[in-house]
Design brief:
Layout lengths: L13 H8 L5 H6 L3 E7 L4 E12 L2 E9 L4 E3 L18 E5 L2 H9 L5 E3 L12 H6 L8 E5 L4 H14 L4 E3 L3
């Protein structure tokens, strides 16, 4: 796999901080979660855009980055390994909350839920590509509770059912918003 370069620049513009704050995410959570900002070429607009960067780590090593521009376009680093966002948070806990997006994970962290991960590519209707689960399965083997907190739409429910099938109903709990 390709590994992106960690620039360790956790500077966010005032505009970005205010955007997160308008969604209930504090600057201290942004720092804790190593959120960054910077220019990135986005294929959806065919130009360089200012992006929020969700940095994906395993054992404090940068594995992937998800870029989000102001139009809610996303991309991951091409050729990088797909893993759960915030997977290191699960170590030492007997539970984990699984959500559909990084913003959902940030919301749980803001609410002081320590062991929360997000799938890297959201929930999709037509194909469930869970290679990230295969890449991180050992992080779930010791969990007594796997709480699945996904959207109630058809894509979210498909993801929920597949996660229950893979982990086993005996350890899975669902959360409905």
């Amino acid at each position: 796999y390709l590994k992106p370069e960690w620039k360790n620049e956790l500077k966010l513009s005032d505009k970005a901080v205010k955007w997160f704050e308008s969604r209930g995410i504090s600057q201290s959570t942004l720092i804790k979660m190593k959120i960054s900002e910077g220019k990135e070429w986005m294929p959806q607009t065919s130009k360089e855009e200012n992006t929020i960067q969700f940095n994906y780590f395993i054992n404090n090593e940068l594995i992937n980055i998800k870029y989000r521009d102001g139009r809610k376009n996303f991309k991951l680093v091409k050729g990088a390994e797909k893993i759960f966002y915030n997977i290191d948070s699960t170590v030492g806990h007997d539970y984990v909350v699984i959500v559909e997006g990084e913003m959902d994970a940030l919301s749980f962290v803001e609410a002081k839920v320590e062991s929360v991960v997000s799938v890297p590519n959201g929930a999709t209707l037509n194909r469930l590509n869970l290679d990230y689960l295969d890449n991180c399965i050992e992080y779930f083997e010791d969990k007594k509770k796997i709480i699945i907190a996904v959207d109630q739409d058809e894509a979210g429910q498909n993801l929920q059912q597949e996660l229950i099938r893979r982990f086993g109903a005996e350890v899975c709990y669902t959360l409905s918003f």
